[in-house]
């Protein structure tokens, strides 16, 4: 399909951040297809949630916050989160008539004509005055490199490829990573695997008690500081610690969550440490997180020497036409909602300032 059209705003991505942004655009008078368009490369509604493993039920989800304007009610905690949240996002898109176009792959965003941006996609080109990038991280899993990695005779996979614990029955599994996914994998795998080993670069930090607003603000501030310095952001979760709930306590008591320091090399049969310790393994499961999906913005040269994009609020300092929602401090579900509103407020102000010059 060869399609070229002009809009005021292009939203890339229809996860929590993209839908929140689209909602606030709609609410403040922007019309879908006429004033803005939402492009999503996923096959169905649900953002990254639709790709989560079936055993991650809605009851296990950590900190899912409702989209603005519509609560997620009566969700069955025993249903897979992919089904629950996919259906919720689908209802949301239809309720607010957001007209998400999918599947559409955004290949590049370039400088266009007349001060506009040119968004080049698998469905043609859009010319836009502003851009909201809400592409998240799921499509860019992070695989660390360790000596000997290519010699391992077993299986290596990332959280993005994890389908559930049953396939690891009778196998010796090394789980790498100290975040929520790593602990969830270990707790699921333990009843099936012949043995599990948990390794992390840093000792995990378990958080007791409620996570109040002050703690949340402190965590977000740490992520914001990295973004201001032009460094790649760390996730908000990485600075909040792991909630010490009953399931985690049981895992610690049972020895399943017995953390070992990061190994120094990978061998054909497992992993080794410099002190001579070794663990034989059939599988290495990398629960090592994700990085922001930003390669399509490369032609705009937004990156700083440190590797990240400097952002003030949601606005890229190198180009005020570009907003990053769900990036850095707004990567949490509640942060994405607030950032979507803030981005739309800034975009309305920018477009209003330009209007007299265009008249």
SSE inventory with pairings:
Elements: E1 4-12, H1 16-27, E2 36-39, H2 81-95, E3 106-111, E4 117-121, E5 124-133, E6 155-158, E7 172-176, H3 180-189, E8 195-200, E9 206-207, H4 213-228, H5 237-240, E10 242-243, H6 246-254, E11 259-261, E12 265-267, E13 270-272, E14 278-280, E15 283-286, E16 311-312, E17 315-316, E18 322-324, H7 333-358
Parallel strand pairs: 1-2, 1-5, 5-18, 6-15, 7-8, 7-15, 8-11, 9-10
Antiparallel strand pairs: 3-4, 4-5, 12-13, 13-14, 16-17
Describe the protein.
The protein is an alpha/beta fold. Helix content is about 25%, strand content about 20%. It is built from 7 helices and 18 strands. It has helices at about 15-25, 80-95, 180-190, 215-230, 235-240, 245-255, 335-359; strands at about 5-10, 35-40, 105-110, 115-120, 125-135, 155-160, 170-175, 195-200, 205, 240-245, 260, 265, 270, 280, 285, 310, 315, 320-325. The strands form 5 sheets. Strands 1, 2, 3, 4, 5 and 18 form a 6-stranded mixed beta sheet that branches. Strands 6-15-7-8-11 form a 5-stranded parallel beta sheet, covered by helices on one side. Strands 12-13-14 form a 3-stranded antiparallel beta sheet, with no helix packed on it. Helix 1 (about 15-25) crosses helix 7. About 40% of the residues are buried.
